[in-house]
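Following up on my earlier message about tetrahydrodeoxyuridine. Here are the inputs again, as you asked, copied directly from the submission form:
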Amino acid sequence: MKKINIATPAIVFSNVSELSVADKLLMDKAIEARKKAYAPYSKFNVGAAILLENNEIILGNNQENAAYPSGMCAERVAIWRVGSEFPDVKILKLAITASSLIKKVDKPIGPCGACRQSLSEYEIKQKQPFQVLFMGEVGEIVKTESLLSLLPFSFDSSYL
Ligand code: THU
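Thanks, got it. Here's what our run produced:
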């Protein structure tokens, strides 16, 4: 028997003005995407922006549906665009932001479990970690150096 302790190193910035120019630019793109979210049911708007090695920035936002489970999260809309349009280009960073029409979102909103799993496929595929930054509408931003650090004990193709 042994005890293990898996840590997720992260930097927490107080607000967007503390971000580097590149990170702020990507977060601004995520905000732009968030503003176009289609979330009439939850009224919770999420935007995602992915920076690729070729300098392209791919956006995504949540797309809801009257049949609730048929909707999709912002992160998966964005990552699947990358997977389908830029299959051989490496991902450098992902920025995520969320706001709500019901209340001020003032704490960092991390990607949901299903999105972490979907995103992990692409980090493993490219054999190189990508940075993940996430925030609410205002306030702190969490930055991690890899997606997999947000998903310990993840399921991957080595189990198949
Ligand atoms: N949502 C995302 O877009 N990303 C997440 O990681 C968590 C949740 C969306 C799904 C749904 O449209 C709304 O937020 C409320 O759950």
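One observation from looking it over: The longest strand covers residues 91-100. Hope that helps, and feel free to reply on this thread.
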